[in-house]
Amino acid sequence: MTDRCPMNTFIYNHPFTLECGAVLPRLEVGYHTFGELSSARSNVVWICHALTANSDPTDWWNGLVGEGCAISPERYFIVCANIIGSCYGSSGPLSLDPEKGASYFASFPLVTIRDMVKAHRLLADHLGIGEICLGIGGSMGGYQVMEWAVQEPARFAKICLLATSAKESPWGVAIHEAQRLAIEADPTWREARPDAGAAGMRAARGIGMLTYRNYTAFGNTQADEEEKLQGFKAASYIRYQGEKLVKRFNAQSYHLLTRAMDSHDVGRDRGGAAASLEKLTSDTLVIGISSDILCPVSEQQFLARSIPTAHLEVIDSPFGHDGFLVETSAIAALLTEQLRP
Ligand code: COA
């Protein structure tokens, strides 16, 4: 993690009950803020991050967040909180379990998107934030924004949902299960050490990368020019990406957060996704990436159809699901339009 701006930690020194019924004796939430809260408290942009990102969007969304960008600290008070279950500053497998006097590791209980939103809401209260002028997130970040907006429609003036869906799809669950099988095939994965399951996570990331891109994207960027028998660029890319994640992430968090993604269903116990989304009142921009095979445009069409105040834009891009991280100029242009008063 490139920590350009220091991370803050919000400590909630009370029991925090998770949706699964387990109770964390206390909660820690790592978060970043940029810019100043206006005197009217009306300039908050809340960014929700995806699976393995951190609370510093100037690190992984540069081009969109930062000085001179569409989401700039000169204009907005920008907040991004690390999701619970992660290993970047919020309570998760590497945190201390006060009851056993050691880290939770693989025993950290199941967290859901609703638990993440519950933590975001506590942080918002702690920061004295009422209305949020824009809530934005891609992929799993979008899960959190829409869940939060369903819980508190009046909180958000505008929301932007990118490469995301109302409910984890069977395809998404199947991919995550394959990733978890890869982690579980590593006999170390439940061990009580931060690098437990590293080899399994390397393979799991490889599986993930296939779904973040697609056939054409690999052809565009990883085709070998010379004829060869082995040592292919595409193979080296997959290994490199696996190794890169191993150096920065924890396998128990990865296993846990894929289960959190599976839990996402904005309509659970609410009469279904369409019935929940129909209650949203925020000005909503839904963005899809034309070549996304993980969360295809049909998912965003469903969101745009179900949210009465939504409109859909599809970015024509060969980058697949990664488009929500790579296509910052196209996203910035759409956002600038949405943010116009
Ligand atoms: N062999 C080895 N390494 C290679 C390679 C090859 N054939 N081709 C590219 N690389 C390296 C690049 O040098 C680069 O290295 P660096 O990160 O150390 O600078 C890295 O692979 C990424 O390259 P690439 O993926 O082509 O960059 P990009 O700008 O197109 O995409 C990301 C950037 C961050 C979007 C992408 O790399 C990534 O990590 N995608 C996954 C994002 C994610 O986790 N999504 C989940 C959301 S639910």
How would you summarize what this structure contains?
Helices cover 37% and strands 17% of the residues.
Q: What does the model show?
A:
This protein is 37% helix and 17% strand. It is α/β, with parallel strands linked by helices and 341 residues long. The chain has an eight-stranded mixed beta sheet, sandwiched between helices. It has a two-stranded antiparallel ribbon with strand order 2-3. Strand 11 (283-289), helix 10 and strand 12 (310-315) form a beta-alpha-beta unit. Coenzyme A binds next to helix 7 and helix 11.
Key structural traits:
two-stranded antiparallel sheet, binds coenzyme A, 12 helices, alpha/beta, 12 strands, eight-stranded mixed sheet, 341 residues, globular
Question: What is the strand and helix layout of this fold?
Answer:
Layout (H helix, E strand, L loop, with lengths): L7 E5 L3 E2 L5 E2 L2 E8 L9 E5 L8 H4 L16 E5 L14 E2 L4 E2 L9 H14 L5 E7 L1 H12 L4 E7 L7 H15 L13 H15 L2 H7 L11 H16 L2 H12 L10 H5 L5 E7 L7 H10 L3 E6 L7 H4 L1 H12 L2
Parallel strand pairs: 5-6, 5-9, 9-10, 10-11, 11-12
Antiparallel strand pairs: 1-4, 2-3, 4-6, 7-8
Helix pairs in contact: 2-3, 4-5, 4-8, 5-7
Bound molecules: coenzyme A (COA).
The site of coenzyme A has 15 residues, from helix 7 and helix 11.
